[in-house]
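To whoever picks this up:

The parser on our side crashed when reading a file containing two proteins. I've narrowed it down to the boundary between the first structure block and the second sequence. Both blocks are reproduced below exactly, byte for byte. First block:
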Amino acid sequence: MLPRPITGCSAALFCAGALVSAPAATTNVSYGLFFFSPRIVQIKAGDTVSWVGGAGHTLLGTGSDPICGANPLPCSHTFNIPGTYPYKCTVGTHAAQGMTGTVVVASVPVPPPTPALLTNLTRLTNGQFRFTVITTANQTNIVQASTNAAKPTNWVSIFTNRPTSNSFVFTDTNNAGLRLRIYRVVEPP
């Protein structure tokens, strides 16, 4: 069965959408001086966690799974067995200073992320539209626009972004002279 779009509209100019699917996913965890972010990650069995950042850190699972085995970061690890997997940086006193984390692996599918929400629409003095997209961090977002939402073939992709935080601001610089433009954000699997 193919993923189906989930759409919802707020106000006259916004539509938000997401595709719901169940393939294995990769979740990114960033790291730096004495931190992992997010500190706790919830995934489903078969998913992968990738630790991304600079050099100078290691990762060792402190439970039943060595995860990256105290090897230098960055690294990735696929979790196939449900459970709770604590880990730490083994460099000097980094763990004692808070550089620890946990991966929680669920045996049942984790609910899909909440569809993107478009807020704070503003028409700028130059006629451009600007709005904020509230979304899931590290999830690809495709902003699409249309002047006639009744025609499914009328949607045009105008911007692609993979934000590292849960929101971003978008300004449509290609809408000169349009009185009405309808927007939606598609989050592909």
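<<boundary where parser fails>>
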Amino acid sequence: MTQEKGEKVFAGPSYQATQTGSFTVPLSAPPGNHRMRIRSDWSTSDPSPCGFDDKSETEDYTLIVTPLNCTANPSNVIATATSTTAATISWTAAAPPPGLGYEYLVSTSPSGTPVITTGTTTGTTVNITGLLAGTTYYVFVRGVCNTTDKGYWVMATLTTGCTTIVTTPTVCPVIIDVQGNNPLTTFPFVADPTVHLECEVASVNLVANVTLREPTSYLVEQVSYPNPEPIYAFPAVGPGVQAIVSDDVWASSRTNLGFRFCFYGNSYTLLRVLVVAIPLVIIYQVLQARYLNTPFMGYTMILILVT
């Protein structure tokens, strides 16, 4: 037998012929039979739960925790630190739910005292603030059936970290996360994963994750060319038929892409159209053969990405 933290509920003064004492049943003790062990040892004031020698004695008793009238107890109580000074407590509701909701308390001891904070709620989630960094807390939740009857406490633990939450923002398709984690395969997907450093962690390695994909199929289609050739209008340089007589004609304003476009490590959300008039001898010859010497002034349109 090993003694877990919080199991010792009474220790008497050293070397007394008669001992008298009392203790409070832990809040998390469920109804039923529990073994209570009493140990005395002449050679130490802090006897272990197990052992045998001619100067010690061990006696076991049965402690009966009677069921309460209120049986609407929560289950699956989970306590999670969300920062160095805050936490979230959640649980599964009892069925049927208690008439007056749930009572909760937070303590730095498994006995439930001292009480750091307490309260009531009709929901199944509570946010706790004002905690200390690098501290272990014990949280208790129970059902409140009516103004008289309450259920037994269900306990969970949490430890706040020594540093604040480190947010790793996503840049383009690159996601930063702790080495060993792959946010691209995590479900559900989190675009901006966070890192929570515990007190005993001196450093953390961050890794850039990126998805590189190759085409798996191709679509080949015949492009149809209208005849006669229609007149195309480019709002970037003006309505109707454009007579391009100078080089480098810029659009008067930038266009919002509506999304973030990454190009060679840079991220863009705007573009500006540049129309350049150039002699297109080869295209001109093709047009001569196709459109019977239709006059043609060649030009090309260039999209310039701007930040």
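After patching the parser it read the second block fine. The chain has four domains: 1-66, 75-159, 163-213, 249-306. Confidence is low (pLDDT under 50) at residues 233-238, 278-301.
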